[in-house]
Amino acid sequence: MTPHDLDLATAQLDPPFAAVDLAAFEANAADLVRRANGKPLRLVSKSVRCRALLERVLAGTGFHGLMCYSLREALWHAELGTSQDIVVAYPSVDRGALRELAAREPARGSITIMIDSPAHLDLIDTALGRDHPRIRVCLELDASWRPLPALSALHVGTRRSPVFRPRQAADLAENVLSRKGFSLVGLMAYEGQIAGLQDRIGARFRDGLITWMQRRSAAELAERRAEAVRAVRALTELEFVNGGGSGSVESTAAEPAVTEIAAGSALLGPALFDGYSRFRPRHAALFALPVVRRPNRRIATLFAGGYHASGAAGASRLPLPALPEGLSLTPIEGAGEVQTPVTGAAARGLRLGDRVWLRHAKAGELAERFTEYQLIRGDRVVQVVPTYRGEGKAFG
Question: Confidence class of residue 201 from pLDDT cuts 50, 70 and 90?
Answer without folding.
Answer: confident
